[in-house]
Amino acid sequence: MKVYGIKTCGSVKKALKFLNDRGMEYEFVDFKKSPVGCDKIDEWIAKVGIEKLFNKRGTKYRQLGLKDLNLDENGMREWLCKENLLIKRPVIELDDGRVIVGFDEELYKEVFGGA
């Protein structure tokens, strides 16, 4: 499994702690060191939808003033491609091909097991 995010993100920290507490193995991909391209973003959009992937609550969204642009799906996709920090974190690619976006402890318990 691969976990995408940035080390300083609160949701990423919670997700990694959850996985570490259960002894789960994963590969961590830091958006700041290894940005993902449009191909990967398109793959995620196809699986979870752009609304789930595009982070409208983050600092980067506010800094760039994107709310004022009223972006459509194509506009959001373009921004995700050029600015990975707009991706809601973490993004987890499971070995079975599923993708989970964000930290939701109840969902994690369902998917990964454990209390």
Task: Report how far apart the termini are.
Answer: 20 Å
Number of domains: 1
Radius of gyration: 14 Å
Give the overall average pLDDT: 95
Would you give an account of this structure?
This protein is α+β, with helices and mostly antiparallel strands and 115 residues long. The chain has a single domain (2-112), classed as Glutaredoxin (3-Layer(aba) Sandwich), CATH 3.40.30.10. It is built from six helices and four strands. A four-stranded mixed sheet has the order 2-1-3-4, with helices on one face. It is globular, with a radius of gyration of 14 Å. The mean pLDDT is 95.
Brief account:
The chain is 43% helix and 12% strand. The protein has 115 residues and is an alpha+beta fold. Strand 1, helix 1 and strand 2 form a beta-alpha-beta unit.
Keywords:
Glutaredoxin; four-stranded mixed sheet; 6 helices; 4 strands
Outline the fold blueprint.
Layout: E1 2-5, H1 10-21, E2 27-30, H2 38-48, H3 50-53, H4 59-63, H5 73-82, E3 91-93, E4 99-101, H6 105-112
Parallel strand pairs: 1-2
Antiparallel strand pairs: 1-3, 3-4
